[in-house]
Design goal:
With 135 residues, the protein is of the alpha+beta class. It is built from four helices and seven strands; from the N terminus they run H-H-E-E-H-E-E-E-H-E-E. The strands form two sheets. It has a five-stranded mixed sheet, covered by helices on one side.
Length: 135
């Protein structure tokens, strides 16, 4: 769509759950071994980030990977070893230290991963681990 100058349709397509579901289930499917007996590997889901980055580079004002991204809302969660924030842009975890609480909670920050820098909007509250659960 970006190459065909159909840029107005790009955001709708890349956020259409039916399109995303189809791409995840039907694109890039490989069955190891070639005999049809192995467990299928669905590679289409790994192409989403590439598609978004490509669209951002091609659409005027998109800014490419480094810029043009809207902040994603994240919440600090305690999985049992202290509160962490997971960056959805690069899928890295970052400890919410005592010093970072005032710097991060309720604010917009850049992902601390220097290779990412994705914009994050951190909720002003934290979520603790539920006690007494066996899962």
């Amino acid at each position: 769509m970006t190459e065909a100058a159909r840029r107005q349709e790009v955001p709708d397509t890349l956020t259409d759950f039916r399109f995303l579901e189809h791409k995840a289930a039907a694109v890039g499917v490989e069955v190891p071994g070639g005999d049809g007996e192995g467990e299928a590997v669905y590679g289409g889901v790994f192409q989403f980030e590439r598609d978004f980055d490509h669209a951002l580079r091609k659409i005027p004002g998109g800014g490419g990977r480094a810029g043009g991204r809207r902040p994603l809302i994240v919440t600090a969660v305690d999985f049992g070893k202290g509160h962490v924030i997971r960056c959805p842009w690069c899928n890295t975890m970052h400890a919410l230290t005592h010093e970072r609480r005032t710097e991060w909670l309720g604010r917009q920050i850049a992902c601390p991963n220097d290779e990412c820098g994705g914009p994050l909007k951190v909720n002003p509250f934290v979520v603790g681990r539920a006690h007494g659960r066996s899962d």
